[in-house]
Design goal:
Shape: globular
CATH topology of the largest domain: Metallo-beta-lactamase, Chain A
CATH superfamily of the largest domain: Ribonuclease Z/Hydroxyacylglutathione hydrolase-like
Structural class: alpha/beta
Number of strands: 12
Number of domains: 2
Order of helices and strands: EEEHEHHEHHHEEEEEHEEHHHH
Bound molecules: zinc ion
Number of helices: 11
Distance between the termini: 53 Å
CATH architecture of the largest domain: 4-Layer Sandwich
Amino acid sequence: MTFPQVIDHEYAGTKEIIATLVLDAEGGYALVDPGPSVTLPTLRAKLLALGIPISEISTLLLTHIHLDHAGATGSLVRENPRIQVYVHERGAPHLADPTKLLSSAKRLYGDAMDRIWGEFLAVPEANLHVLNGGERLRVGTRTLEVLYTPGHASHHVSYLDTSEGTVFVGDTAGLRLANRPLVSPVTPPPDIDLELWDASLRQIEARSPAQLFLTHFGFADRIDWHFAELRRRHWVWAERVRDSLDGAADDVDRMAGFVLSAIRDFRGILPPEECVLYERVGGLELSWQGLARYWRKKEDPA
Ligand SMILES: [Zn+2]
């Protein structure tokens, strides 16, 4: 078997929206973003189909700690306490004590949170390896360079696999499902910062990567085009949200108008049944909220 292998969580019965990447490591295997715990049974079954029980997972490489990427971390460590977890220094405290993270997520998802994402268990501090960016990690025969890539989240890192020139970008490169010709921003609260995000994209571009690996979803090529599209749409969305804030409508109506405009954009590029996938993963209402917060913070930094 050759690595990396992509595991599709088939989240909510839908193919190609949430992925985990499997790498061969020294004395075991590494997972990039284990995904939410609600699809842990799928992850477990698909790993077993590759001949990999959880007891052979040695390493989790987290891009960031949002529930769709890192929700299963604590459950996996409980099952196999040998697992070492790599995470940015700003994310690590929230894995050790997820109280704040979960109450912030609960504001976004309400009472549906557990049903949507499943449990989020704390990770013992002894299992955590704190990253700042700039580290070089040895994973099997690979050397991964850690890039600090804030913008989507203040604690987001990406991993450059120097052997193949692939960057595991988490959500830093937005959404592009199964290499389709549509790149969508994904800008949920609370950390969105478009200037920092642009600097993160430049940092990745400076490595001239051969391909990207996106959690949503899979390997993506034509990186120059991809990043240009993402930047363009970031600012189109940001301006729409800023304009919406100037109007007299309330936030519910502002959000609804924004969602419709984004869907109209998507439908100009992809058939409706494929647009629905982007709507489902992207959480367009959350993206309005994240950008509204970005502008309101600029106006009133306190
Ligand atoms: Zn995500």
